[in-house]
Write a structure and sequence with these properties.
The chain is α+β, with helices and mostly antiparallel strands. It has one domain. Helices cover 49% and strands 17% of the residues. It contains three helices and four strands. It has helices at 3-30, 57-64, 110-145; strands at 46-53, 73-81, 87-90, 102-105. The strands form two sheets. Strands 1-2 form a two-stranded antiparallel sheet. Helix 1 (3-30) runs antiparallel to helix 3 (110-145). It is elongated.
Length: 146
């Protein structure tokens, strides 16, 4: 795999991963006040787990032979629920209140979600810049040739 296409592939994997992260944060924010889910209980915050993808020895050998190998990059390995307990709020008039009058609210902190959203957005924008710079370099190389 040549340098330009592997750069595009690495950035594309990061763009996909950050899109999933942004979607997950949006879901968390949308459910920040959901006290009852289909599964029962309040909504539980979700987080995205990433893993670096590097060429293994066999992948490097395929790449050296000019065969298609899975390029380095990033993968989303899972979207998991945060184990933090729900916030208990005294609200005896709420339909989801327990016998003591407390309501279990989601473990979503909007400030944490907004910071995570900003970080994911910046990472996405950085990868867009890499794609654009790579495209400009390839255009410049083609103009030298032709």
């Amino acid at each position: 795999m040549d340098l330009l296409s592997s750069t595009f592939a690495i950035s594309a994997s990061a763009l996909r991963a950050e899109r999933i992260r942004i979607d997950t944060v949006a879901t968390n924010l949308a459910n920040a006040h959901t006290t009852q889910t289909v599964e029962g209980g309040p909504y539980r915050r979700k987080t995205v787990l990433f893993a670096a993808r590097a060429l293994d020895e066999f992948g490097q050998m395929l790449d050296d032979l000019g065969r298609s190998a899975r390029p380095a990059g990033v993968d989303v390995t899972d979207v998991v629920e945060d184990a933090t307990p729900p916030r208990m709020v005294f609200d005896p008039g709420h339909p989801d209140a327990n016998p003591e009058g407390y309501v279990a609210h989601p473990n979503v902190d909007p400030i944490v979600e907004m910071v995570d959203l900003q970080a994911a957005t910046r990472a996405y924008e950085a990868n867009v810049q890499v794609v654009n710079a790579t495209r400009r370099m390839s255009d410049a190389a083609l103009s030298i040739i032709g």
